[in-house]
Amino acid sequence: MQLVEADCVIPDAVSPPLRPGAVAVAAGRIAALGPPAALRARFPDAARTELGDAILLPGFVNAHQHGRGLSQIQLGYPDDALEPWIARRRGRGTPDPYLLTRHAAEQMLRHGVTATLHANYSYATGDYEAELRGVLRAYDETGLRATVCVGYADQGGLVYPPADEARFRAALSPGAQALLAAARPAYLPLDHTLDLMDQLRADYADHPTITLAYGPAGPQWVSDAGWRAIARHAARSGIGIHFHLLESPAQRATADRLYAGQVLAHLQRLGLFETAVSAAHFTQARAEDLHEALRLGLVVVSNPGANMRLFNGAPPLAAWREAGLPVALGTDNCALDDSEDYLSELRLGGLLARGTAPQDPGAANRLTLAMGTETGARAIFQPGCGRIAPGLCADLVAIDPRRARGVWLDPDCDPLDLVISRCTGADTVMTMVAGVIRHRAGSPRPGPEGLARMAAAARQAGPGAQTHAEEIAQALRAHIPGGEEV
């Protein structure tokens, strides 16, 4: 048993703060919360962690990221429209998925994230199972609570259907065609994917912080047969499904051509919503898509920094909030400031969600907190976290606002306003996952030498690879909306 005491405890987005407050933790879960004196009397033998001026909150939930511990800027290629941006990766070498994910997890813990969803991602090594097991090892070793998606894609890896991929390839130079021909498979065949899920679920059945989910890449990347099989297996196994949805203008145009604009209704017909489902982005959704999302109970994960950096526009969070759509937030490893500072990205999402209608600032901050905690827990299929309440997971973050609470601020200001409006991830003084302190302010960080080696390895590719990848990216730019075919 341990007591975590702070100047203020904010249990959730609805309950009033406790000032001062304490949380009792036992066996990885919340045993009680209340005034420090009362809990000390109730648990006289408990060890005490005293956090002083800190504000204690439920840990933040990064509900969509890919374990990319080094950003594209660090790896040497710039922001671009999504499809050319993806193509530029073909000119880069393959980083170590374990090391990259471990670095991402360590960054998240330092910034107060206690739980995350690792969305589908492959480095196309030709051994997707080994990649995924490296990812799982990274989350296991760091202790970050993670829902890890088993990814799948079987179409649209170069150009989205129904475009003629052979025609697109034929228009490229021999060098670019050779680069594409040398590419190894990114994912496993469908039957192997289902088998891998069964193996991993058995391996991690009793794991305290790791959960499995399916991560079919998105409508334009997965055939109807793939969706049906994954949906059936997920429903039978009781596991969630998370995917990309209407992220870019090109994906919007593809959905219009393939599904007459009725992408969610089409996925429903394939059985997708027979289990818990969340989707990332949704930036290019129209009013009818929003209506369908509400009807189907879809939880959307917004990634505002990534959406704006990759030329997909600012997500209409104010309209979604007004409509009642449940929205969580993820960094997509492409946050506005090119870091894993979740709190800064949450602030951006909260500001976009305010709109122009007059409203109580306190209510706006509470909704922002919910986006980063409770709704995030729904989006990653882990309802046991996201709030501080007896019986729930002991996933806590302590933010010290002393640097933000300058002499110009009223010392009686709303503590949640301090966190949402002024603090950053650098103000995190403690991160606890399942009752274990995984980060304390001042703890050592990974050495820059290792990161530099990882970045250098990822930049290495075959002769001319970057030139040919750039050619493919330019061809895609002409091909996507505004170009010839899609």
UniProtKB/TrEMBL annotation:
It holds the Pfam family Amidohydro_1. GO terms for molecular function: hydrolase activity, acting on carbon-nitrogen (but not peptide) bonds; metal ion binding. Keywords: Hydrolase, Metal-binding, Zinc. Belongs to the metallo-dependent hydrolases superfamily. ATZ/TRZ family. SUPFAM superfamilies: Composite domain of metallo-dependent hydrolases, Metallo-dependent hydrolases. Residues 55-435 form the Amidohydrolase-related domain. Residues 21-46 form the Aminodeoxyfutalosine deaminase/Imidazolonepropionase-like composite domain. This is Cytosine/adenosine deaminase. The keyword Phosphoprotein does not apply.
